[in-house]
Amino acid sequence: MTEDTLILRRPDDWHVHLRDGAMLGQVADATARQFARAIVMPNLAPPITTMQAGAAYRERILAALPEGRVFTPLMTAYLTDDIDPDEVERGFRQGVFTACKLYPRNATTNSTHGVSDIANIYPMLERMQTIGMPLLVHGEVVSADIDIFDREAVFLERVLRPMMDDMPGLRVVLEHITTRDSVEFVQAAGDTLAATITAHHLRIDRNDILAGGIRPHVYCLPVAKRRFHREALRKAAVSGNPKFFLGTDTAPHRRGDKESVCGCAGVYSAPVAIESYAQTFEEEGALGKLEGFASEFGPRFYRLPLNKDAITLKRQPTRVPESIVSGDIEIVPFHAGEMMSWRMVDEV
Ligand code: DOR
Ligand code: ZN
User: Which of 270, 274, 283, 302 has a 20 to 30 Å separation from 200 between CA atoms?
Assistant: First the structure.
């Protein structure tokens, strides 16, 4: 390890959207070349709710990767009001499903089949608690009377706290946290609660989306909040507290679907994910804390072994492309057009 080389135990990404079809073909290796494993979100259309669908999707992901790439997609089941706990338990026991994902209905992309009232899935949550299956939460209330910037904070008190009180043994990951409220909530909770933090929420606040013109490529959900929230996320990420770990929420959409009268939510960070985190940790004077956050705390929470191999980042100023095109799909990545100070080098 020198000032210009950073060697890290290979990281995992505990929250990705890999999509399907041609889009999957374009984006899958951006994640797989950096990360050994990734928790794959099930919000396809239709969503992944059965063991068979989960296993078939895993095969399509593996088939989309280049020859020789070693990567383990960890599949998730999409909770609906009428999901079958027996089916999910079978999928968990057979190693198809690693976790279940809770989307409050209509909270985000492809969430129309999501849960309309948490009470509807209590039998499913009780089963997960019994078998030790983690619950991954999109933590926003969706209600016309709640301002979009308050949706996460309100979710903590209205939904998450009562649910955790009722289900004290259920292990929960509060995904892609965006507020100081969530940081404090997670810090104060017991060991059953952890949180992922995206690369982009560590770098942007709402001004980056809205001030001086609308920038659709950094619009995502939960939407980035005020700067003091971002500062709280940065402090949590570099704190060394194992309850906070890496989950990019990389969420590709076609350029035209983002630059639209009703633009889709999602930041495509996979091509520059570890570089972006490295830049943030360095700015915080905490590069030494990156490995725990990126490569150790996630597996510890999920009760999986640490990866044995390593990746190398070089201090090599590199410009991120303005867009990435393959066939008829064009995607604008996070950091488009910017210089990054670190670059992960491929072994091959
Ligand atoms: O910004 C987001 N994009 N947030 C989500 O929760 C879903 C994701 C997507 O699937 O595009
Ligand atoms: Zn997501």
Answer: 302
Which two three-digit tokens encode residue 335?
A: 């950091």
138 lines ligand 1 (CB under 6 A): yes
Non-local CB neighbours of 171 within 8 Å, separated by 6+ positions: 132, 134, 135, 192, 193, 194, 301
In one-letter notation, the amino acid at residue 255 is R
Q: Which atom of ligand 1 is nearest to the CA of 253?
A: 11
Residue 140: CATH number of its domain: 3.20.20.140
Sheet holding 5-9, edge to edge: 5-9, 310-319, 339-345
Residue 348: per-residue pLDDT:
44
Query: How many Å lie between the centroid of ligand 1 and the Cα of residue 263?
Result: 12
Our answer on whether the CB atom of 209 is closer than 6 Å to any ligand 1 atom is no
Q: From start to end of the chain, where are the E strands?
A: 5-9, 13-16, 37-40, 72-78, 97-102, 135-137, 172-174, 193-197, 244-246, 310-319, 324-326, 329-331, 339-345
Exactly one of 82, 249, 257, 328 is catalytic; name it.
Answer: 249
Amino acid at 321: P
Ligand 1 atom closest to the Cα of residue 220 is: 1
Q: Is 186 in the pocket of ligand 1 (CB under 6 A)?
A: no
Q: What is the pLDDT of residues 226-263, one digit of tens each?
A: 999 999 999 999 999 999 999 999 999 999 999 999 99
The verdict on whether 249 is a catalytic residue reads yes
Residue nearest to atom 7 of ligand 1 (CA): 109
Closest to 74 in 3D by CA, of 266, 301, 254? 301
Region 2-14: mean pLDDT is 94
* The CA-based dihedral angle spanning residues 31, 34, 39, 41, taken in that order and rounded to the nearest 10 degrees: -20
| 292 Cα–ligand 2 center, Å | 22
Question: What residue's CA is closest to ligand 1, atom 4?
Answer: 221
Number of domains in the chain: 1
- Cα distances (Å, whole numbers) of residue 55 to 50, 68, 74, 159: 9, 20, 10, 31
Query: What range defines the domain where residue 145 resides?
Result: 5-344
Taking the complete model, does pTM exceed 0.90, yes or no? yes
